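Consider the following input, taken from an annotated entry for Disulfide bond formation protein B (Methylomonas subterranea).
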Amino acid sequence: MTVSRRLWFSTGFMACCGLLAVGAYMQFVEELEPCPLCISQRLAILATGIIFLMAALHNKAHNIYAIAAAFSALLGAGISARHVWLQHLPPEQVPECSPGLEYVFQHFPLTDTIKLMLTGTGECSQIDGIFLGLTIPGWTFIAFVMLAAFSLASLRVYHASDTDQEKDI
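Applying the prediction step yields:
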């Protein structure tokens, strides 16, 4: 017996909500200021969650939603991988810190702001904590890979159940 597609994609949406809640907790309770790459990762989680929600609500074109959610999650994984890479650079290779993101949004062209948010700056190399040997971006990378795998697993699970239903006819 397989779970309904609505429940499957709702579960993915709830996972994204949980990840965003953890990020909000770290920012507002633990007072960890997010760097540009952290914000980009949150946006990728948000985009992935919205795709999961649309799939659950629309209940059509599941394969398209599954591929879109996996693509969004893999983009986020790429951003997380870049963040992990920056954290492991030798100090002399770390890029310079930028002005605050609010200042950048107000005074820099949009293309420069997007480039900054996707490539990171010196503050992105700061490690604010390690849990079980991984930094926050390391755990976020794992979460993105799991979200992508979860999304793509729906293609296999429901393709197999659709094939079984065809055999019954």
